[in-house]
Task: structure prediction
Amino acid sequence: MTFRILTLNPISPRGLARFPRERYEVGADIQRPEAILVRSAELHDRDVAREVRVIGRAGVGVNNIAVDEMSRRGIPVLNTPGANANAVKELVLGSLFLAARNLGAAWLFARALSGDDAAIDEAVEKGKKAFVGFELPGRTLGVVGLGAIGVEVANAALGLGMKVLGYDPQITVRRAWQLSSSVEQALSLDDLFAHSDVVTVHVPLNDDTRALVNAARLKLIRKPATILNFARAGIVDEAAVLAALEAGILHAYVCDFPKRALLDHPRIITLPHLGASTLEAEENCAVMVVDQLRDFLENGNIRNSVNYPEAVLPRVPNATRLGVANRNVPNMVGQISTCLAAERVNIADLLNKSRGDYAYTLIDADGELSEAMLERIRGIDGVLAAYIL
Result:
């Protein structure tokens, strides 16, 4: 079988090279694709072909994808957590130094100097007092969100001599193993703000995190504090940050999301969404998402999905694999098994996982599976998609 992959953005050649040419057609003009590969292209207003089985995002954020609609259609949306973690970590640390030493404003001051060297020297001696900063050792960094990026930032900050507080009630076992034991646990977001000199956010934007940094929490923070936002613009209430800067509550705000209200403030540094903008990060994301797309299309395995459960089942030799996405309702596996039993098909291995309103089943069956049986499974109330792999 040949798989068709539609690319909606330029993707690193290193990643695309991992699609075997004899089995995959890949390009921006592919018709009736089984998979879509995307970076930042907007999919909300785009018709997604009915043949599409999976969408891969070469990056972490999926705000450009209609995830709820894809879930209802039985289409897993995959992303690449951790592939750009080092790139974002380095930018966060760089922004920390920018803020601590007022380097943005100091550079602009120096660039605006005029006259001969004597005049410049005199102006420097008079002006440098305006850019007195602070050193990092002994300061407390609060890290909100301990995923791939947050863990790397927390561990690196310890190496700079900072005390680190972390908050993430949904931290995974994998990330917990990676996190230094010297990172202290904050009891709540309010607790983290109340004990931090610098706060950096590394969480997705959703209803729970929108305006997570707000006026109420800024009143709790140690003064004057610094806020770093390299996650999503909406996580920070910009009006509250501007008011806190004017009130002396904040020393600086550094973010990756330029907005008109932020551009001209002397204690705000805005960068043009550089978080994952390194050649290494783009390659890492492309390689990771291509491997995940192939594993799903060829084996039905789901890795790093934002809407369906993690589901990885080693294949039974000489078995035929069936993958089923469905609503998470009772007796779904029983109904699928009944369809197989009606054709005297034996189940060699089975995996069923659920996540919220949706579930996913992988079955390795002895012998062939007919198209007629597949259509009966698709006809079960609650089944959203089913494929023979």
